[in-house]
Design brief:
The protein is α+β, with helices and mostly antiparallel strands. It has three domains: 86 residues, no CATH class; 31 residues, no CATH class; 99 residues, Immunoglobulins (Immunoglobulin-like, Sandwich), CATH 2.60.40.10. The protein is built from four helices and 16 strands. The strands form six sheets. Strands 13-12-15-16 form a four-stranded antiparallel sheet, with no helix packed on it. Strands 5-6-7 form a three-stranded antiparallel sheet. A hairpin with a 5-residue loop joins strand 12 and strand 13. The radius of gyration is 34 Å and the shape is elongated. The two termini are 47 Å apart. The relative contact order is 0.11.
Length: 284
Amino acid sequence: MVYSGTELEQAIHDSVNSYNWEPATGTSDRAVQQGLIFNVLSKPFRVKNYTLNLTSSGEQFEKPQPVGSSGSITVYAPPFGWVPTSFSVEKVTPPPPIQYFTYNYSSIYGTFSTSAESETIAYESFQQWLRQKEAQQPEPTPEPIPEPTPEPIEAPIITEPEPVYIPAIPIPQPTVDDSINTNMVTQQVINFNIIDGRAVGSIKFVATNNFNPFYYGKEIVNLVQFKTPNGVTLLVKENRLRFTETERDEIINYDEDMKGNTRATVESFVWEWIDKPAGAFSSK
């Protein structure tokens, strides 16, 4: 069957429903396959010194087919006639598996063991377990305190002293530095891909040497926003970060529904709080 330039999307749709494109694209999701193939064939390319644009209504071509780890499409290129042409498709790379580690903590209630992605998560689980154990302990019954026998007290003779006026001395208030700047936190995007219709990836947040110590131990807000290439917001997700002098980095993983979109942009902001941002720690 011969297609024209206005039927490129239909030709690719027919192809992914007729052939196995998984070896060439790295995914079994046909919607993702169709988007990857369209990204390649919608761009102009040359065949024997003849430039083709398959989205132009004047072009003619046959349905593309997978050939091993690449693809092939037969196009009409005057004055050469019908010419088969190979093309490569960018494959979807799955994210690395999440590693879990075993942590053991000793306490007066025994040993607590857990598996977690990081020591921060494991320690929080340990603290929650301690609170549960403490809540299960019976409250001690206090021993009754005998009331003392009152002794007779002679009423003292009170002489009113002369009033002494001491001038008030102003006490200087300490200055608190709670300033914020965009160099306090760095962000590193790790392997963001759209797999089976979901945005999968991670962001690593690191408190830099410019981090204001006033915010150690305090919660700060991370907002991650997913948008289409046209700027339409798909999802806004809120996370909480907490840094200390010894725990200066956190990794947050994402696995979000992209509502059928095969491409998206990710924007990440770090603020003091969500309802009234005093300033940005970082943006990405």
